[in-house]
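Dear V.,

Thank you for sending over the compound details. I've combined the ligand you provided, fe (ii) ion, with the protein sequence from our construct and run the structure prediction for the complex. I'm sharing the raw inputs here so there's no ambiguity about protonation or stereochemistry in the SMILES, which I know was a concern on your side last time.
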Amino acid sequence: MKLSLKALLLSCTLLSSVNAAEKSLTIYSVYPGDKLEAVFKPFTERTGISVNIVEGKSKNLIEKIKNDGVNSDADLHLDKDLVYHNLATQEGIYQSFNSKVVEENVPSNFIETNKNWFTIFYRSRVIMYNRDLVSPTELSSYSDLGNKKWEGKLCVRTSNSTYSQALSASLVAHLGAKKALDVFKSWVANFSMDPTSSDRDVIRALAAGKCHVGLVNSYYLAPFIEADSEYPVRPFFANQGFSNAHVNGVGIGITKYSKNVKEATMLLEYLSSKEVQAPVAKAFDQYPVNASASISTTLRDFGTFQVDKINVGTLGNFVETAKELMTEAEYK
Ligand SMILES: [Fe+2]
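Below is the predicted structure of the protein with fe (ii) ion bound, written out as C-alpha cells.
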C-alpha cells in the first residue's frame, strides 16, 4: 500500500511535469528575444515552461494586444517605462496579478495601484554634470536647473521622449501644474542647445563642455565610465531630502485575456526573486526593485540615493498634463 501510494505520487509528479513541459508563455516585449534569452532560459529549465518573445514598438504592441482582444496570444506585456505601461493600463490590456511573493519582493511604490503591472528594475533620471566645470555642491533639485546660474549651460532630451515626459510628470505631481510650467519655462531659458533625441548625446555634449549640466537616465553613463574611469561626466541624484530622485523602469504585467495566468504569475514571481534580480538589473545597468539583490560596482560607485516614493501608476496619470505644459513652455 505504501509503495503504491509512492508510485501514485511519482506518477502525479511526472504527469504535472509533462503538463508543464507543454506549457508556453508569450511575452510582447519592446526588447528583442536575444536580449532577454539569458533571463528566461533558467525559468524554462526550472519549470519546463517555454517563453516566446514577440518584439515590437511600444505603441504597436499595446494596440495589437488591445485589438486582438480575447484572441490575443500575449500572456504578458513588457515595456521600458511607466509612460507606456500607463498607456497600456488606460487601454485596458492588463488583468490584476495576484501574488504575495511579488508583493513581498517589490516595494509598493513600484507596483501599480491596481496591480496591473510592476517595475522589474529601475533607473533614476539624474542630473549629470561635467566635473571639470561644476562642483556637485552647486547642484540640488530638478527645478534648480532653471536657476539663472545655468543660463546657456543646460542640455536635455526632447519633450517627446517618454523619459522626459515621466520626469516632467513627477514635477507636476509634486509641484502642481502652475509651478511645473514655470520650471519648464526656466529650463528652456537655460538650454545651451536644442534638445537632443538621445541621452547619450547629452552625455557627449557634457563631456565636450558644450553644456555643464544635463538630464539623463543613470544607466547611460555606466558604459562611458567603464570604458574610461576618468570620463568627466558624473551623476547627481536630485531632490534628495524632499521629493527624492525621480525613478522609472522596465515593467511587466499579465494581459487581460491570458489563458496561462498561473504560469504567467510564476514568471512574475521568478522575475522579482533576488537571484534573478541581481543579474538582470546588472545586464541593463539598472537598479533591482528587490532591495536584497546586489548591484554592479559601477552603480555602487554612483552612490546611494533616496527614491521618490510616489506610486509608478499614480505618476503615469500626470503624463498628459506634463506633455501639455512642456508644449506651452516651448520645450521642444
Ligand atoms: Fe533607454
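A first observation: The chain has two domains: 23-122+248-296, 123-246+312-328.

Warm regards,
I. M.
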